[in-house]
Design brief:
Strand order of the largest sheet: 8-10-7-11-9-12-13
Shape: globular
Radius of gyration: 21 Å
Structural class: alpha+beta
Distance between the termini: 21 Å
Number of helices: 10
Strand content: 15-25%
Helix content: 25-40%
Length: 349
Protein backbone atom coordinates (compact mmCIF):
# COMPACT_ATOMS: atom_id res chain seq x y z
CA UNK A 1 0.00 0.00 0.00
CA UNK A 2 3.03 2.27 0.12
CA UNK A 3 3.60 2.17 -3.63
CA UNK A 4 3.01 5.74 -4.75
CA UNK A 5 0.76 5.96 -7.81
CA UNK A 6 1.73 9.61 -8.37
CA UNK A 7 5.20 11.02 -9.10
CA UNK A 8 5.10 13.26 -6.05
CA UNK A 9 6.92 12.00 -2.95
CA UNK A 10 7.70 14.80 -0.55
CA UNK A 11 10.34 13.86 2.06
CA UNK A 12 9.36 14.61 5.66
CA UNK A 13 12.77 16.18 6.27
CA UNK A 14 11.60 19.10 4.16
CA UNK A 15 9.17 20.12 6.91
CA UNK A 16 10.66 19.49 10.35
CA UNK A 17 8.49 18.41 13.27
CA UNK A 18 6.49 21.59 13.79
CA UNK A 19 6.06 22.20 10.10
CA UNK A 20 4.78 18.66 9.63
CA UNK A 21 2.31 19.01 12.50
CA UNK A 22 1.08 22.32 11.12
CA UNK A 23 0.65 20.82 7.67
CA UNK A 24 -1.22 17.70 8.82
CA UNK A 25 -3.51 19.58 11.21
CA UNK A 26 -4.27 22.68 9.16
CA UNK A 27 -7.78 21.53 8.23
CA UNK A 28 -8.79 20.22 11.65
CA UNK A 29 -11.83 21.97 13.11
CA UNK A 30 -13.22 22.04 16.65
CA UNK A 31 -16.83 21.05 17.24
CA UNK A 32 -17.15 20.06 20.91
CA UNK A 33 -18.25 22.76 23.34
CA UNK A 34 -15.90 21.26 25.93
CA UNK A 35 -12.86 21.97 23.72
CA UNK A 36 -11.70 25.37 25.00
CA UNK A 37 -8.24 25.22 23.38
CA UNK A 38 -7.22 22.55 20.88
CA UNK A 39 -4.09 22.22 18.76
CA UNK A 40 -1.54 25.02 18.82
CA UNK A 41 -0.32 25.39 22.40
CA UNK A 42 1.71 23.34 24.89
CA UNK A 43 -1.43 21.52 25.98
CA UNK A 44 -5.11 21.42 25.16
CA UNK A 45 -7.66 22.98 27.50
CA UNK A 46 -10.97 21.22 28.13
CA UNK A 47 -13.91 22.45 30.19
CA UNK A 48 -16.47 20.00 31.54
CA UNK A 49 -19.29 20.83 33.92
CA UNK A 50 -20.91 18.28 36.25
CA UNK A 51 -19.60 15.30 34.27
CA UNK A 52 -17.07 12.51 34.70
CA UNK A 53 -14.20 12.33 32.21
CA UNK A 54 -12.87 9.00 30.93
CA UNK A 55 -9.46 8.65 29.26
CA UNK A 56 -8.05 5.72 27.28
CA UNK A 57 -5.06 5.19 24.99
CA UNK A 58 -4.01 2.53 22.52
CA UNK A 59 -0.83 1.79 20.58
CA UNK A 60 -0.74 0.33 17.05
CA UNK A 61 2.62 -0.96 15.79
CA UNK A 62 3.42 -1.94 12.20
CA UNK A 63 4.09 -5.64 11.94
CA UNK A 64 2.26 -6.36 15.18
CA UNK A 65 -1.18 -4.77 14.85
CA UNK A 66 -1.34 -4.06 11.12
CA UNK A 67 0.22 -5.07 7.81
CA UNK A 68 0.51 -2.31 5.22
CA UNK A 69 0.60 -4.83 2.38
CA UNK A 70 -3.20 -4.96 2.63
CA UNK A 71 -4.14 -2.23 5.13
CA UNK A 72 -4.61 1.10 3.30
CA UNK A 73 -3.27 4.02 5.31
CA UNK A 74 -6.62 5.81 5.23
CA UNK A 75 -8.29 2.75 6.71
CA UNK A 76 -5.54 2.47 9.31
CA UNK A 77 -6.12 6.05 10.46
CA UNK A 78 -9.85 5.44 10.71
CA UNK A 79 -9.44 2.15 12.56
CA UNK A 80 -6.92 3.61 15.01
CA UNK A 81 -9.51 6.15 16.11
CA UNK A 82 -12.32 3.58 16.32
CA UNK A 83 -10.22 1.25 18.50
CA UNK A 84 -9.99 3.97 21.15
CA UNK A 85 -13.55 5.25 20.86
CA UNK A 86 -14.73 1.69 21.45
CA UNK A 87 -13.02 1.72 24.86
CA UNK A 88 -14.84 4.95 25.73
CA UNK A 89 -18.13 3.35 24.68
CA UNK A 90 -17.32 0.37 26.93
CA UNK A 91 -17.51 2.74 29.91
CA UNK A 92 -21.00 3.81 28.73
CA UNK A 93 -19.53 7.23 28.00
CA UNK A 94 -19.68 9.57 24.99
CA UNK A 95 -16.40 10.22 23.10
CA UNK A 96 -15.46 13.88 22.82
CA UNK A 97 -11.76 14.39 21.96
CA UNK A 98 -8.66 12.52 20.75
CA UNK A 99 -4.93 13.16 20.53
CA UNK A 100 -2.80 11.60 17.80
CA UNK A 101 0.88 10.66 18.10
CA UNK A 102 2.90 9.16 15.25
CA UNK A 103 6.41 7.71 15.00
CA UNK A 104 7.40 7.25 11.35
CA UNK A 105 10.45 6.04 9.41
CA UNK A 106 11.95 7.87 6.44
CA UNK A 107 10.44 5.40 3.96
CA UNK A 108 7.13 7.24 4.36
CA UNK A 109 6.73 10.39 2.27
CA UNK A 110 4.46 13.28 3.22
CA UNK A 111 1.74 11.96 0.93
CA UNK A 112 1.52 8.73 2.96
CA UNK A 113 0.95 10.65 6.21
CA UNK A 114 -1.64 12.83 4.49
CA UNK A 115 -3.53 9.66 3.58
CA UNK A 116 -3.25 8.40 7.16
CA UNK A 117 -4.55 11.70 8.53
CA UNK A 118 -7.39 11.69 6.03
CA UNK A 119 -8.67 8.53 7.71
CA UNK A 120 -8.16 10.02 11.18
CA UNK A 121 -10.08 13.17 10.24
CA UNK A 122 -12.88 11.12 8.66
CA UNK A 123 -13.32 9.09 11.85
CA UNK A 124 -13.25 12.23 13.99
CA UNK A 125 -15.93 13.80 11.80
CA UNK A 126 -18.03 10.63 11.72
CA UNK A 127 -18.04 10.30 15.50
CA UNK A 128 -18.10 14.03 16.29
CA UNK A 129 -14.84 14.09 18.25
CA UNK A 130 -12.23 16.84 18.21
CA UNK A 131 -8.55 16.25 17.42
CA UNK A 132 -6.86 18.39 20.06
CA UNK A 133 -3.15 17.54 19.91
CA UNK A 134 -0.49 14.85 19.78
CA UNK A 135 3.13 14.39 18.74
CA UNK A 136 5.32 13.24 15.86
CA UNK A 137 8.77 11.68 15.95
CA UNK A 138 11.05 9.45 13.91
CA UNK A 139 11.08 5.65 14.05
CA UNK A 140 13.58 2.98 13.08
CA UNK A 141 10.89 0.28 12.99
CA UNK A 142 8.30 1.58 10.53
CA UNK A 143 5.04 3.19 11.59
CA UNK A 144 3.81 3.46 15.17
CA UNK A 145 0.49 5.13 15.90
CA UNK A 146 -0.81 6.07 19.35
CA UNK A 147 -4.19 7.66 19.98
CA UNK A 148 -5.64 8.84 23.27
CA UNK A 149 -9.40 9.30 23.52
CA UNK A 150 -11.45 11.23 26.05
CA UNK A 151 -15.14 10.95 26.79
CA UNK A 152 -17.77 12.14 29.22
CA UNK A 153 -20.62 10.63 31.20
CA UNK A 154 -22.72 11.40 34.23
CA UNK A 155 -21.59 9.53 37.33
CA UNK A 156 -24.71 7.34 37.34
CA UNK A 157 -24.17 6.40 33.66
CA UNK A 158 -20.66 4.98 34.00
CA UNK A 159 -20.33 1.19 33.79
CA UNK A 160 -17.30 -0.78 34.99
CA UNK A 161 -16.17 -4.37 34.53
CA UNK A 162 -16.83 -5.15 38.17
CA UNK A 163 -20.58 -4.76 38.62
CA UNK A 164 -22.04 -8.04 37.37
CA UNK A 165 -24.07 -10.20 39.75
CA UNK A 166 -25.11 -13.85 39.77
CA UNK A 167 -28.08 -14.44 37.38
CA UNK A 168 -27.37 -11.30 35.33
CA UNK A 169 -27.89 -11.82 31.61
CA UNK A 170 -24.89 -11.62 29.25
CA UNK A 171 -25.62 -9.46 26.20
CA UNK A 172 -23.59 -8.68 23.08
CA UNK A 173 -24.11 -6.12 20.32
CA UNK A 174 -23.84 -6.94 16.62
CA UNK A 175 -22.25 -10.17 15.42
CA UNK A 176 -19.02 -11.97 16.24
CA UNK A 177 -15.93 -13.36 14.51
CA UNK A 178 -16.17 -11.59 11.15
CA UNK A 179 -13.18 -9.30 11.73
CA UNK A 180 -10.83 -12.17 12.53
CA UNK A 181 -12.03 -14.20 9.56
CA UNK A 182 -11.58 -11.13 7.35
CA UNK A 183 -7.95 -11.06 8.49
CA UNK A 184 -7.55 -14.71 7.52
CA UNK A 185 -8.92 -13.97 4.04
CA UNK A 186 -6.47 -11.09 3.60
CA UNK A 187 -3.56 -13.19 4.84
CA UNK A 188 -4.48 -15.97 2.41
CA UNK A 189 -4.62 -13.58 -0.52
CA UNK A 190 -1.29 -12.08 0.53
CA UNK A 191 0.32 -15.52 0.40
CA UNK A 192 -1.17 -16.15 -3.05
CA UNK A 193 0.11 -12.79 -4.30
CA UNK A 194 3.61 -13.48 -2.99
CA UNK A 195 3.72 -16.74 -4.94
CA UNK A 196 2.27 -15.16 -8.10
CA UNK A 197 2.21 -11.34 -8.23
CA UNK A 198 0.12 -11.50 -11.41
CA UNK A 199 -2.71 -13.15 -9.50
CA UNK A 200 -5.15 -10.42 -8.46
CA UNK A 201 -7.32 -11.22 -5.40
CA UNK A 202 -11.04 -11.80 -5.87
CA UNK A 203 -12.63 -10.54 -2.68
CA UNK A 204 -16.24 -10.08 -3.79
CA UNK A 205 -17.48 -12.94 -1.62
CA UNK A 206 -15.82 -11.53 1.51
CA UNK A 207 -16.80 -7.83 1.48
CA UNK A 208 -18.43 -7.84 4.92
CA UNK A 209 -15.61 -9.77 6.56
CA UNK A 210 -12.93 -7.50 5.10
CA UNK A 211 -14.83 -4.37 6.06
CA UNK A 212 -15.08 -5.62 9.64
CA UNK A 213 -11.29 -6.06 9.68
CA UNK A 214 -10.15 -2.96 7.81
CA UNK A 215 -12.88 -0.48 8.77
CA UNK A 216 -14.61 -1.44 12.03
CA UNK A 217 -17.08 0.91 13.70
CA UNK A 218 -17.40 1.92 17.35
CA UNK A 219 -20.78 1.29 18.98
CA UNK A 220 -21.44 4.87 20.02
CA UNK A 221 -25.13 4.20 19.43
CA UNK A 222 -25.52 1.74 22.29
CA UNK A 223 -25.41 4.24 25.16
CA UNK A 224 -28.39 6.11 23.71
CA UNK A 225 -30.22 2.90 22.87
CA UNK A 226 -29.90 1.56 26.41
CA UNK A 227 -30.98 4.88 27.88
CA UNK A 228 -34.05 4.85 25.61
CA UNK A 229 -34.83 1.30 26.75
CA UNK A 230 -34.27 2.38 30.38
CA UNK A 231 -31.63 -0.32 30.87
CA UNK A 232 -28.50 0.31 32.94
CA UNK A 233 -25.79 -2.34 32.36
CA UNK A 234 -24.22 -3.84 35.48
CA UNK A 235 -20.84 -4.43 33.78
CA UNK A 236 -19.39 -3.77 30.33
CA UNK A 237 -16.31 -4.29 28.15
CA UNK A 238 -15.56 -4.00 24.43
CA UNK A 239 -14.60 -7.04 22.37
CA UNK A 240 -11.09 -6.31 21.13
CA UNK A 241 -9.23 -9.47 22.22
CA UNK A 242 -12.00 -12.04 21.68
CA UNK A 243 -15.32 -12.81 23.38
CA UNK A 244 -13.89 -15.54 25.64
CA UNK A 245 -11.09 -13.29 26.93
CA UNK A 246 -13.45 -10.36 27.54
CA UNK A 247 -16.09 -12.46 29.29
CA UNK A 248 -13.42 -13.91 31.57
CA UNK A 249 -12.37 -10.33 32.40
CA UNK A 250 -15.96 -9.50 33.42
CA UNK A 251 -16.24 -12.64 35.55
CA UNK A 252 -12.92 -12.13 37.32
CA UNK A 253 -13.55 -8.45 37.97
CA UNK A 254 -17.10 -9.10 39.18
CA UNK A 255 -16.34 -12.25 41.15
CA UNK A 256 -18.75 -14.44 39.19
CA UNK A 257 -18.83 -17.47 36.92
CA UNK A 258 -20.76 -17.71 33.67
CA UNK A 259 -22.55 -19.94 31.19
CA UNK A 260 -22.11 -18.91 27.55
CA UNK A 261 -24.45 -20.72 25.14
CA UNK A 262 -23.03 -21.76 21.78
CA UNK A 263 -26.39 -21.76 20.03
CA UNK A 264 -27.04 -18.13 21.03
CA UNK A 265 -23.90 -16.65 19.41
CA UNK A 266 -24.86 -14.06 16.72
CA UNK A 267 -23.06 -15.00 13.48
CA UNK A 268 -23.28 -13.31 10.08
CA UNK A 269 -24.22 -15.61 7.12
CA UNK A 270 -21.04 -14.61 5.24
CA UNK A 271 -19.02 -15.56 8.30
CA UNK A 272 -20.69 -18.98 8.49
CA UNK A 273 -20.20 -19.78 4.79
CA UNK A 274 -16.54 -18.68 4.86
CA UNK A 275 -15.89 -20.83 7.94
CA UNK A 276 -17.18 -23.77 5.93
CA UNK A 277 -14.90 -22.82 3.02
CA UNK A 278 -11.87 -22.60 5.33
CA UNK A 279 -12.96 -25.78 7.14
CA UNK A 280 -12.77 -24.09 10.55
CA UNK A 281 -15.17 -24.22 13.48
CA UNK A 282 -17.38 -21.12 13.55
CA UNK A 283 -17.81 -21.19 17.33
CA UNK A 284 -14.06 -21.30 17.92
CA UNK A 285 -13.51 -18.24 15.72
CA UNK A 286 -16.52 -16.38 17.09
CA UNK A 287 -15.43 -16.59 20.73
CA UNK A 288 -11.66 -16.28 20.22
CA UNK A 289 -11.20 -14.09 17.14
CA UNK A 290 -11.10 -10.54 18.45
CA UNK A 291 -11.24 -7.08 16.82
CA UNK A 292 -15.03 -7.11 16.61
CA UNK A 293 -15.25 -3.90 18.67
CA UNK A 294 -18.75 -4.83 19.71
CA UNK A 295 -19.86 -4.28 23.31
CA UNK A 296 -20.26 -7.13 25.80
CA UNK A 297 -22.29 -6.30 28.89
CA UNK A 298 -24.50 -7.71 31.60
CA UNK A 299 -27.96 -6.62 32.69
CA UNK A 300 -30.31 -7.48 35.50
CA UNK A 301 -32.62 -10.38 34.69
CA UNK A 302 -35.60 -8.09 35.33
CA UNK A 303 -34.60 -5.99 32.28
CA UNK A 304 -34.90 -8.86 29.80
CA UNK A 305 -38.31 -7.82 28.48
CA UNK A 306 -36.93 -4.34 27.69
CA UNK A 307 -34.29 -5.66 25.28
CA UNK A 308 -36.09 -8.77 24.00
CA UNK A 309 -36.32 -8.77 20.23
CA UNK A 310 -34.05 -5.75 19.73
CA UNK A 311 -32.03 -6.39 16.53
CA UNK A 312 -28.92 -4.72 17.97
CA UNK A 313 -28.72 -6.91 21.08
CA UNK A 314 -28.41 -10.66 21.68
CA UNK A 315 -28.59 -12.47 25.02
CA UNK A 316 -25.86 -15.13 24.88
CA UNK A 317 -25.74 -16.43 28.46
CA UNK A 318 -25.93 -15.60 32.13
CA UNK A 319 -23.67 -15.04 35.10
CA UNK A 320 -23.40 -17.73 37.80
CA UNK A 321 -21.82 -18.06 41.21
CA UNK A 322 -18.03 -17.88 41.06
CA UNK A 323 -17.59 -21.44 42.35
CA UNK A 324 -19.55 -22.80 39.38
CA UNK A 325 -16.79 -21.66 37.03
CA UNK A 326 -16.85 -20.19 33.54
CA UNK A 327 -18.26 -22.46 30.83
CA UNK A 328 -19.26 -22.67 27.20
CA UNK A 329 -22.46 -24.70 26.91
CA UNK A 330 -22.43 -26.51 23.56
CA UNK A 331 -25.40 -27.27 21.34
CA UNK A 332 -25.29 -30.79 22.81
CA UNK A 333 -25.65 -29.23 26.29
CA UNK A 334 -22.10 -30.20 27.24
CA UNK A 335 -20.23 -27.78 29.47
CA UNK A 336 -16.67 -26.91 28.45
CA UNK A 337 -14.43 -24.86 30.72
CA UNK A 338 -13.80 -21.51 29.07
CA UNK A 339 -10.23 -20.39 28.43
CA UNK A 340 -8.90 -17.07 27.17
CA UNK A 341 -7.58 -17.90 23.70
CA UNK A 342 -7.90 -14.47 22.18
CA UNK A 343 -5.22 -11.96 21.24
CA UNK A 344 -2.28 -11.55 23.64
CA UNK A 345 -0.49 -8.31 22.84
CA UNK A 346 2.75 -9.35 24.55
CA UNK A 347 3.20 -12.79 23.07
CA UNK A 348 1.68 -12.79 19.60
CA UNK A 349 3.83 -10.20 17.88
Amino acid sequence: MLEDKSPQRTPLSQFGEFGLIAHLTQNIEVGQSSTHKGIGDDAAVLRFENTQTVVTTDLLVEGVHFDLSYMPLKHLGYKAVVVNLSDVCAMNATPTQITVSIAVSNRFPLEALEELYEGIRLAAKTYNVDIIGGDTTSSQKGLILSITALGVAQEHELVYRSGAQENDLIVVTGDLGAAYLGLQVLEREKQVFQVNPNNQPDLDNYTYLIERQLKPEARTDIKGLLAQLEVQPTSMIDISDGLSSELIHLCKNSGTGCNLFEDKLPLDPQFISTCEEFNVDSTTLAINGGEDYELLFTINLADFDKIKGNPNLTVIGHMTAAQEGMHLVTRAQTKIAMKARGWNALYEA
